[in-house]
Amino acid sequence: MARQLPPLHALRVFETAARAESLSAAAQELSITHGAVSRQIALLEDWLGQTLFVRQGQRNVATDHARAFAAEISAAFDLIGDAALRFGKAPQTRVVRVNAQTTLAMHWLIARLPEFHAAHPDVQVVVTTSSSGDTAFRAGFDVAIRRDPASRPEWQAYEKTVLFTERATVVAAPPLLEALPVRRLKDLAKHTFVATQTRVGAWEDWLSAAGVPALRPVRFHRFDHYHVSLQAVVDGLGLGIGSMPTLNRELAAGRLTLPFPEIQVDGATYVTLVPRDADKSKPLRDFLAWLHAAASADLAANVEAKVETKVEEKVEEKVEEKGKAPANVDVRHPARRATSPATRRTRAGSAE
User: Fold this and answer.
1) CB atoms within 10 A of CB 284
2) Which phi-psi region, left, alpha or beta, contains residue 57 (left: φ > 0; alpha: ψ -120 to 50)?
3) What is the pLDDT of residues 48-84, one digit of tens each?
4) pTM of the entire structure?
5) Domains of the chain and CATH, by start
6) Which end of the chain has fewer CB atoms at under 10 Å, N or C?
7) What is the Cα–Cα distance from 5 to 9, expressed in whole angstroms?
8) Where is the composition biased (Low complexity) (predicted)?
């Protein structure tokens, strides 16, 4: 069925006039005459059967009805412009289209984009998000960032490069720990655990690495997506399993803290995927170089020296409590981390 659309040129002229609140300003912006603007608006009024502008003194002013209509038309033009930018990019256009899973985009990528723009002010980065491992491959992008639980046949058409491997440990909102302190592992049993359906076994893996696999919380709260679980932890609903460097900014800002930074397990590995037949433009090459450098810098920021004092205190407490160090913690090197391949488990096509 054919769409019943008003004259598109008339829509463009009308939107400009309503936004500028002046027919003369619209004529100047569009490089047409004042009379041409008036004729296009009259054409649109005839099509709609509505008066869009009324005379007030020496000016033509948009009616309330027209202003509401113009707001929706403006939003539609924005969508058209964005689609043209994303799907009609010419090789010389300095645009990089990035598709990332929601958690990584929210907590890691977006917060770092100002650093890229400062170094490359003439490059526009268009970020879209995906909650499924397959959705992004139905849309246009220059680079996708994905968790890589296993090799996928559909990824053979992409150049895959490891970005970073997360390290997972318990995270909590500082006010929650002030109200109900966690000084020893047994104190965890007084709390609620926040878990995520798409990261199966995260709590079990960490508790096993900590040497207390049988420990149980007051209750579990489970959410379908990881970014929802993280927000619940920030809001103080309970303790969660968080990953570095994804949450470095939340830790630095004091929104989250680590009760046991010395006990960490292997988390997800993130990779970049670039279509093999894609145009490797200079903006894309610059973005990829910056992206991997930012990941390396964040990994370096998690060095054991930054938590050494707190780690030593925690290890001493556990040694006093148990009479020996946990099997997965080396007292001589208290920040040495535990590893657990089981944390790499994820559901096929899992959402983030």
Assistant:
1) 20
2) left
3) 999 999 988 888 899 999 999 999 998 888 888 777 7
4) 0.61
5) 1-90 (1.10.10.10), 96-314 (3.40.190.290)
6) N
7) 11
8) 337-352
